[in-house]
Amino acid sequence: MSLVRRVARPMLAAMFVVGGLDQLKHPGAKAKAARPVIDRATKAGLPDDPELLVRANGVAMVGGGALLATGHVPRIASAVLAGTLVPTTLAAHPFWTESDPQTRAQQKIQFLKNLGLLGGLLLAAVDTDGRPSLAYRAHRAGESVQRTARTTKREARHATRSARREARLKAAQAKNALT
């Protein structure tokens, strides 16, 4: 792992670990703010307990942040954190609903900060750490299978021709032995 990844991943994860712990300790105020988002989520089959959902989001943030910071399954951890960031941002920073210009500006800044974090998480989610991606490796494996199939067919043709020549030679030797 490169030095940049070793330093950048914990830096990116710190916000999520701290925010997740806060959601676990103090879900009440956040549950109140999350109510509009939770109302939409309950239509998708999630439970209608705002504090439970805020705590679950906090657990995902702490777990994903810890995994990302330590470099364990960083791509999956980044994807999980990106998934937690979307509802958090929509619930906590709806600048479009604010009427006070100063509050609106502050909420917009926080919204854009979270948007920047989301961009960093998306980059971390696709970062292969210098190794080829799964799609590339699958493509190469498919090419390898095709190459093996072609080689096997060619070798089978050669073996068939060789066996025919050998059979003709043996037949000729047997015929000569009889005469």
UniProtKB/TrEMBL annotation:
It holds the Pfam family DoxX. It is a multi-pass membrane protein. It comes from the Bacteria. The keyword Ion transport does not apply. Keywords: Cell membrane, Membrane, Transmembrane, Transmembrane helix. InterPro entries: DoxX, DoxX-like_oxidoreductase. It is found in: Cell membrane. Residues 152-169 have a biased composition (Basic and acidic residues). GO terms for cellular component: plasma membrane. Residues 147-179 are annotated as: Disordered. Belongs to the DoxX family. This is DoxX family protein. It comes from Knoellia aerolata DSM 18566. The lineage of its organism: Bacteria, Bacillati, Actinomycetota, Actinomycetes, Micrococcales.
